[in-house]
Amino acid sequence: MTVPCASVGAVNVNYNASEKLTTTASYSNFQTFTNVKPQFQYINQLTPYDNLDTLNFMQLSQNANVNINYVLGRDPQLPQNLNVNLSFQDAFDKQGGIITKGNNSQFYNLASTYSRTNVKKAYTLSRALNMTYNTIGTTQMITAGPTLMANKQLFEKKVQTGASVSYNITHNLEAVQGQVALLRVNGGYSYKKKHLLNLSAVTMYRTMNNREAQNDVTVNLSYNYNF
């Protein structure tokens, strides 16, 4: 017999300090509790007093996020934007009131993006920096790296093109564990707002400790029709 129950709490706050500066913050937690008594304890017992113990298992997680967006410059034809996002997640298990060793994890993620758009020429250039720190049990890992992105509209905005290149490195506070270099290109063509043809390609070069380097290429072609 299993008796589960759950509880959820969440709060969100939005604050517009000015026309240029916007901040949002959120927090949530989730808790599940399960009281388990396997059916074979009933099947295999000799008396009604055998196997009285049950398993009390609890999973808890909490999430927090802060987002800051700031508009740079005053020219509406050349808008610039700076965005910073920080997120946190904590999750762990409890069994019999004790946190299970090796089953707790924490994730911290920081992402910052600067973008500049030319409305007249219909293109956007962006630069981003991402960093993630996580602990799973006794393991600690950091992954960080930059990304460059460009998007351009052509032929009266009927053709959408984009490209990005990124690089990130992962280490465990003692030695480098792996590196990834990634190139993405994509293009889309819209015809009479009903037909949409998309083509995208991704090439990734990855190295990891004690493993051979890998180079993967993925190409996707899709067609959509809107009724």
List the keywords.
single chain, 227 residues, mainly beta, 12-stranded antiparallel beta sheet, 1 helix, Outer membrane protein beta-barrel domain-containing protein
Model description:
With 227 residues, the chain is mostly beta strands. It has one helix spanning 39-44, and strands at residues 2-16, 21-36, 55-72, 80-95, 98-99, 105-118, 123-136, 139-154, 159-171, 176-191, 195-208, 214-225. It folds into 2 domains: 1-137, no CATH class; 140-227, no CATH class. Helices cover 3% and strands 73% of the residues. Strands 1, 2, 3, 4, 5, 6, 7, 8, 9, 10, 11 and 12 form a 12-stranded antiparallel β-sheet that branches. It is globular, with a radius of gyration of 25 Å. This is Outer membrane protein beta-barrel domain-containing protein.
